[in-house]
From TrEMBL:
Pfam families: SelP_N (PF04592). It comes from the Eukaryota. One of its GO terms (molecular function) is selenium binding. GO terms for biological process: selenium compound metabolic process. It comes from Nycticryphes semicollaris. Residues 3-165 form the Selenoprotein P N-terminal domain. This is SEPP1 protein. The gene is Selenop. InterPro entries: Selenoprotein-P_N, SeP.
Length: 165
């Protein structure tokens, strides 16, 4: 199953880079168990060189326990190393938009004001992302579906899942 995950993560990485979101670090943490350790080389080969695969040692403290998470979680940090999103199942499935949107928000938010780590040209990139999200939301509002037309179950302001730890 990690081949599907790896392909989707790589597709997401390329998509975001093509949209102008550059210098994002992606790290996959392999589980400590013996089965996962034996499959490490397959996992490493299934992702591009742009995605780091970290192999935990069986003797070290489990990374996921240390981070108050589980093996299928996505932890999204901003450029200053602050945890912005902690997405667990089902929000961590790459077939949904939660991971992508969370990365975009973490990339574009300027919580602290001016930042020396901000990429040149980020304003234009983030403006395009915001405009695109607004257009998608407008489309959803124009096309109500089923019996729940007054509820908006898509991408939007109300579906940001922030879990600060």
């Amino acid at each position: 199953c990690f081949f599907t995950f790896s392909a989707r993560l790589e597709d997401l990485r390329v998509k975001l880079e093509n949209e102008g979101l550059v210098n994002i670090s992606y790290v996959v943490v392999n589980h400590q168990g013996a089965y996962s350790q034996r499959k490490f080389h397959l996992l490493k080969e299934s992702v591009s060189d742009y995605i780091t695969v970290y192999q935990q040692d069986e003797q070290q403290a489990d990374v996921w326990t240390t981070l108050n998470g589980s093996k299928d979680d996505f932890l999204i940090y901003d450029r200053c190393g602050r945890l912005v999103y902690h997405l667990g199942l089902p929000y961590s499935f790459l077939s949904f938009q939660y991971v992508e949107e969370s990365i975009k928000i973490a990339y574009c938010e300027s919580k602290c004001g001016n930042c020396s780590y901000t990429e040149p040209g980020i304003d234009g990139v983030c403006e395009n992302i915001t405009r695109s999200a607004d257009e998608k939301l407008a489309e959803v509002e124009l096309k109500p579906s089923g019996h729940h037309s007054h509820h908006h179950h898509g991408q939007g302001q109300g579906h940001r899942h922030r879990h600060h730890h």
